[in-house]
Amino acid sequence: MIYIGKGEAVSPTQASPSCVVTPLRHIEGERRTYEGFLQSFASHSHSHYAIGFVRRGMRTLECNGETHALVPGDVVVFNPGDVHGCVQSGEGAFAYDSFALPARAFGSTKLAGPVLRNCGARDAFTMFADAVECAADRYVAEDALFALRDALSRDGVAESIASVPRRNREAALRTYAYLRGHMADPVAVGELARREGISEFALIRAYKSEFSITPSQHLLSMRVDCARDLLVRGASPADVAAATGFSDQAHLTRAFRQRIGSTPAAYRAMVTGGDVQ
Fold first, then answer.
1. Is 181 found in the same domain as 125?
2. Spatial separation of the C-alpha atoms in residues 32 and 39, rounded to whole Å
3. Which CATH number does the domain housing residue 32 bear?
4. Global model pTM greater than 0.85
5. Which residue segment(s) compose the domain that 258 sits in?
6. What's the domain count of the chain?
7. Which of 6, 16, 53 lies closest to 38, judged by CA?
């Protein structure tokens, strides 16, 4: 018998392997879910990052000439160019969740790996998986991506401001000024980075070092702050959403509640003494 998970048992003929690949919403990349695998994986490398979590089964991993044992609960990290392959060890079929993320997603940062067994790495993987699955917009997904990178960096923390090139810090300040002046306009951080001649990740990293928040989340905060001012003056939530750059009233409501703790309509009623509409 081949045992899959605690208390589950199937025969070798019942263990039908499957690999499901799903494009991520809001950010570039894909989720890959492997279930019931007994086959070996030949040595290979990727031009992208591969970050995964072992759910069941055990494997012997060869990565860049070193041997590692994989067990349930391990977080597995392959940087672009890492040469890796694995073989089955033990009877339990292999179950594995992973994300393939382009090299530019992390600015080609060297992540820790290939095998991490600390709670911080596990929590970061779980939070990222939940965030990209449920993210209502790219701002949430972008923050989750940045948090994952921080958790998996070699020292477990983001670089200090001193390690950010001056050019990038100046780009972050110009980006802030642009966001303030174009608050209601559609803004693509990648396009702003291209104008500055740096990668999107480098701009986000520099911006967060300067302002302790990503540019996308900062823009949302600016929009919510402006929305609050308009609501105080009695503007309707629908008009406020259009005036402050939100895609619709529902988007405004979601962002407003996350930061103020109330819906825009309820907030307007409380500060103006009117009715919730």
1. no
2. 16
3. 2.60.120.10
4. no
5. 218-272
6. 3
7. 16
